[in-house]
Amino acid sequence: MEATCLNCNTEIVQNFCSNCGQKKYKRIDRKYIWDEVQYSTVHMNKGFLYSIKNILINPGKTARTFIDGNRVNHYKPIALTFVLAGISSFISYKLIGLNEVMEKTMSPNETINTEWFHEYMSFVQTYNAFLILLMIPFFAVFTRWAFKAWGHNYYEHVVVNSYILSYYIILNLILVYPFTYIFKENGNLVMIISQAAMLSFLIILPYFFKNFYPEHSMKNILLRLLIFIGLSIGLGIVLFIATIIGAIVYIKFFSPETLQLFVPKKPGI
Fold this sequence. Notes:
Low-confidence stretches: 108-112
Strand order of the largest sheet: 1-2
Structural class: mainly alpha
Helix content: 55-70%
Distance between the termini: 91 Å
Largest sheet: 2 strands, antiparallel
């Protein structure tokens, strides 16, 4: 049955207007409200759980399918990464209390391990998913350089790295966080678990790219990943040095003890 689009007055033959895309008029009822609730929360009716399932089963193939154009059933990859990073940070901060665990574990000393540095390290451990999320544009540059000969542009590599991070976060939520919660009273063990989770990238990356590029041999993939890992380590060293320099500058010039020297003393004190 034909209807007229209420937005542009074009005749609608099927469910959507062929001119502007507006959906065919339907009276608001219980089903409409339920669909709207789903859409407004996590967009379940457009692929959130579908994408999670497919990323778990085969993350590389899921990313390749999306990039190659089969997108209608998938949650947008960058939005998915933001949602998962938010869930990860909420669990690590609110439910596990990872920042408190890190602060208790890192005992202070008289060198660079000041209270500020402890807070910084606990912040890094607690929000590492968000921090890695901020690194996606840089990682995309590196994977683009490493896999340049295989045809995908920079923006497609942004999507690739979003899927890699989503896969990493999902594995953390399923495998790492339950153990972290169970052993959260043992700070040293929690730190070992956290470091092991970061090292899991050495397994995740070859697995992901072999599924993303099934037409290429694992040997070629590993050679290109060595380039990517080398560039990433270089960036990590630069950021670490910048952090140390920042910490030293803070301690030397902006710590409460130093700032106190510039406060005028009252007469007689």
